[in-house]
Structure formats: C-alpha cells, structure tokens
Amino acid sequence: MADNTRNKLTTTIYGREYIIVGVETIDHLRHVARLVDEKMHEIGSQNRSLDSGRLAVLTAVNATHDYLKLEEKYQELEKELARLKGRE
C-alpha cells in the first residue's frame, strides 16, 4: 500500500510566502520551491519591467519547455534501448 502522507512546507518564492502540500518529502518540496524561485529571479533580472503575474507565466512556460525537451529525449532513449535489445 502506498504511503499518501501529506507533507506541508511554508516557503518563500520571489518574495512571497507560499504553503506547498504534497506527498513528496519536505526536501523534495523545498528543492522544487528553490528551483522555481531561482528561475523567477533569473527571468526577472533579464526583464525588470515584468509584473509578478507575467513573470510567473514566463517561468511556467520555461519550465514546461524544459520538461517537454526532457520528455522528448527520454522517448528517444527508450526507442534506442528497445532497438538495442532487439539486436541481442
């Protein structure tokens, strides 16, 4: 049976406090929050005129882009692995 214990983390992202709840470890939740905060600061430093809403959307767009690129790479590797296994 899976452990569905919910963990709760209070953290600050881009100067605002958030409560993040999830089944992942506190360390994982903290890591995710830190990455989002870092990406928002990175994008914000390059686009100082953005309000926080637009900055959050650009951060989400960047994160989704990165995710899709990784997913594509994963699919390529899965196909390569299947091809190599077929040669055995």
TrEMBL record:
Keywords annotated in UniProt: Cell cycle, Cell division, Coiled coil, Cytoplasm, Septation
GO BP, sorted A to Z: division septum assembly; FtsZ-dependent cytokinesis; septin ring assembly
Location, primary (coarse class): cytoplasm
GO cellular component: cell division site; cell septum; cytosol
Subcellular location: Cytoplasm
Function: Activator of cell division through the inhibition of FtsZ GTPase activity, therefore promoting FtsZ assembly into bundles of protofilaments necessary for the formation of the division Z ring. It is recruited early at mid-cell but it is not essential for cell division.
Name the UniProt record assigns to this protein: Cell division protein ZapA
Native source species: Listeria booriae
